[in-house]
Design goal:
Helix content: 25-40%
CATH architecture: 3-Layer(aba) Sandwich
Shape: globular
Number of strands: 7
CATH topology: Aminopeptidase
Radius of gyration: 16 Å
Largest sheet: 7 strands, mixed
CATH class: Alpha Beta
Number of domains: 1
Strand order of the largest sheet: 1-2-3-4-5-7-6
Number of helices: 6
Distance between the termini: 25 Å
Length: 174
């Protein structure tokens, strides 16, 4: 599918072979703060999730795609969540799994592809994301793609004994 191809990556649907990859990502406590996860996920639950990932975004209100290199290496995941057909909007989440692969443009490429797909194929009017105040890399990534900060949620997330502010960013289709 040409639509989901970027310069360095392509976005693809989840496959049964992604079980270990998704299990590793979802159970990495270092990134639980990003996804507000508090409990580990079993392989059984993740396998069921992957088996149902083919369901239509209009039915399940989300779409999770694997960010893959052209050498077919899974680098991360990008999601549309809280898909709202009536109001033509969805939230965006993105993660590059390994720190060694961050800062190489994969996330930027994936976000560009997802934005184009969301506006042209899903006919969305806007995308939004929520980013912790200390996640400077994500703030930079989304701002570079035209997202504007439209709100600040004070003391929004509690992690390791500290409350952190969360920024709300929005991109409206031109």
């Amino acid at each position: 599918m040409i639509t989901l191809k970027g310069e360095h990556i392509y976005l693809r649907a989840l496959e049964p072979e992604d079980l270990e990859f998704v299990h590793d990502v979802e159970n990495n406590e270092a990134i639980w703060e990003l996804s507000n996860t508090q409990n580990p996920f079993s392989k059984y639950i993740i396998k069921q999730y992957i088996e149902n990932a083919h369901k239509d975004i209009y039915e399940v209100k989300q779409l999770r795609l694997v960010i893959s290199s052209y050498a077919n290496v899974a680098l991360g995941m990008i999601d549309l969540f809280d898909f709202d057909f009536k109001n033509k909007r969805a939230g965006v989440g993105i993660l590059i799994k390994e720190s060694k692969n961050r800062g190489k443009g994969y996330g930027e490429d994936a976000l560009k592809v997802l934005i184009k797909y969301s506006f042209s194929h899903l006919n969305l009017h806007q995308l939004y994301c929520n980013i912790s105040e200390d996640n400077k890399a994500s703030i930079k990534l989304f701002e570079k793609q035209g997202f504007k900060q439209v709100g600040l949620k004070k003391d929004w997330n509690y992690n390791n004994g500290i409350f952190k502010d969360e920024h709300l960013f929005q991109l409206i289709k031109k």
